[in-house]
């Protein structure tokens, strides 16, 4: 094509119109649930992992010992089925054909005469026990242990190339090996290889690694190549679909909450770490919990926020700190966190076994609805979290985060139950049913104590569900965030590795401004023109939510408007409801200060409802905060 006759402005126009043509409108209704329909991890994955128990000093006897205990103790029957080998299993990558070799000195069953190796006998053994097998890799060329566990006896050996045990450049080959040849069911893919191996870094120079220009800067989302990180992981997911075509394989993304994974993890993997590594310290547990607890709308069957593995049995959560250990467990359970035991199960005391094997609490975590618990009350001292169960009940956690005793009121309103009807609580630690009450009740909590209950009562919304009660049925397809910002609502703990030598922990996990249940995207009370709402969805303008009509509701309704906490008070928005791609209702122009308006639509027979908030003629990039107050599905199947 000859362009010489075009003037510069004409060229710019041409470019703009081609771009406009090429990019589909992200707010156009999809007419369907766009997340992959997954058969694996319909409930949060459960099992055991070697990392918190043994770091790289893992071996076959330790893993099989854990596996045997899972079976013998009944934990496997409760759902703890995945037995995951974390970092430390590899010897080297054979350079003539690129094949990975297992360190057979610690996994003797993997030895194959002639110097080859295969994990097949090991996974056969686990499968014969009724268990599933998980393995670990890295998205770059080198793994985390090769940077952080330099004293380990189990680091990959050999030349620079032989020590490149990560997936980079070998995705197809390694995934075929792990899933098709070795029979694994689960893969955790870490990200140190694209994070800490920069040219000139002491670790690279001293250990003669090949440098990898970092794609992730954990301290700066702006310096992180989010699309590239996502696409590397998406390639792994695609390879897993090729080599484990039955759809039963699980992919765990381990970018430690960086690279905006808290937004896109659901589209690529079955679980994604929302924070850096947990340690057996109370304040670290708070940090990890907070990184996932505000993300209820991002988790759903087949896709889970992962605040990291359980550290019960160690440090602040050991058998001398059962209050803390129980809190850790109840908290992970109510936010649908994956439950991976990280303890040497061959010698676990009964007091710890009793925690992992609390069938009622496991049932809360494994409820088939997949609705992550939503924060109903929050302060730095105490929190109340409420989760919708599929049997029509609620699960509730009252959590004392601090070192002072606390008295907490639990109200019917917080549980979205009628305030004038009897409410029954069953204590899931003792199994005891408490005296019936109406309206509210109160509890005294010891320092760091968590109470967890199953609750039955009369629903406040008798013929429907508030959308914030069923986050597992909502997909935040487009969240309206223009530039990702770090989330400040995460407990800042004292440096575990640096002490107080540096300036302290800064907010680092992108996702601030994402859609929230029962709060605005920036964690304020939902409020339109002075009217506040104790339930609803808070979302930025420029967003599209997909809602699965799993209960065959007949109406969707909400009170919509620009939220009083909006940062952009000038620009207008419009709220639209679609049913299976058809426009059903629109609000007309709404602005900051205009009263909430009622928006509703008949959704009989509709499978996927879409809630869209548009701001097509913005004059600035400042976020417009909007509220779908009291958003609810009415009618439909009884609950
Ligand atoms: C990273 C991960 C951990 C663990 C180690 C292994 O730190 O976040 O969960 O897998 O690497 O080296």
UniProtKB/TrEMBL annotation:
Family recorded in the similarity comment:
Belongs to the glycosyl hydrolase 27 family.
Q: Which InterPro entries match?
A: Aldolase_TIM, Galactose-bd-like_sf, GH, Glyco_hyd_98_carb-bd, Glyco_hydro_27, Glyco_hydro_b, Melibiase_C, NPCBM_sf
Signal peptide, first to last residue: 1-22
Which reaction is this enzyme known to catalyze?
Hydrolysis of terminal, non-reducing alpha-D-galactose residues in alpha-D-galactosides, including galactose oligosaccharides, galactomannans and galactolipids
Q: Check the record and name the SUPFAM superfamilies matching this protein.
A: (Trans)glycosidases (SSF51445), Galactose-binding domain-like (SSF49785), Glycosyl hydrolase domain (SSF51011)
This protein is called what?
Answer: Alpha-galactosidase
Q: Which GO terms describe its biological process?
A: carbohydrate metabolic process
Please give the Pfam families that the UniProt record associates with this protein.
Melibiase_2 (PF16499), Melibiase_C (PF17801), NPCBM (PF08305)
* Keyword Protein biosynthesis among record annotations: no
Keywords, comma-separated and alphabetical: Disulfide bond, Glycosidase, Hydrolase, Signal
In its keyword annotation, does this UniProt entry include NAD?
no
E.C. numbers = 3.2.1.22
> Superkingdom of the source?
Bacteria
CDD domains registered for this protein in UniProt: GH27
Tell me which residues make up the Glycosyl hydrolase family 98 putative carbohydrate-binding module domain: 497-635
A GO molecular-function descriptor? alpha-galactosidase activity
